[in-house]
Write a structure and sequence with these properties.
It comes from Eleusine coracana subsp. coracana. Pfam families: W2. This is W2 domain-containing protein. One of its GO terms (cellular component) is membrane. Helix 2 (about 15-40) crosses helix 5 (about 65-75), helix 5 (about 65-75) runs parallel beside helix 7 and helix 6 packs across helix 7 (about 95-115). The chain has a single domain (about 20-115), classed as Serine Threonine Protein Phosphatase 5, Tetratricopeptide repeat, CATH 1.25.40. Helices cover about 80% and strands about 0% of the residues. The protein is globular. The protein is mainly alpha-helical. The protein contains seven helices and no strands.
């Protein structure tokens, strides 16, 4: 899938975790337009979140980046708020579910508060 190609493009040659994180997030931003073209339905957006979760679960370098990746995809209109909330409430993959849900909790809280203000 396209997500696999994106992660293959990440250069893990940084001298520290921060440089590697920045590299990964730059790639997500660079590919956001193309990902947006493919994520045309809520179901496809949910599949992308599952793919991101699985990739982060399998690669320790990405584990802590999960919330930032999801936020970046949201900020670039790849993922809709409703899709993120659905994943958070009941749709996450079982691989590392508790860790990912907990990591995304502050962002979800922000989404919910912004929704209430509208």
């Amino acid at each position: 899938m396209l997500w696999d190609v994106l992660m293959e493009a990440v250069q893990w040659s940084g001298k520290n975790q921060q440089q590697n994180s920045n590299s990964a997030l730059r790639q997500v931003k660079a590919w956001a337009g193309l990902l947006n073209a493919f994520c045309t339905t809520g179901k496809l957006e949910l599949e992308l979140i599952y793919k991101v979760q699985t990739q982060c679960y399998e690669d320790a370098k990405l584990m802590k980046l999960f919330p930032e990746i999801i936020r970046t995809l949201y900020d670039h209109d790849v993922l809709a708020e409703d899709t993120i909330l659905l994943w958070f409430r009941k749709g996450s993959n079982q691989k590392g579910r508790q860790s990912f849900v907990k990591a995304l909790e502050p962002f979800v809280k922000w989404l919910e508060e912004a929704e209430e203000e509208e």
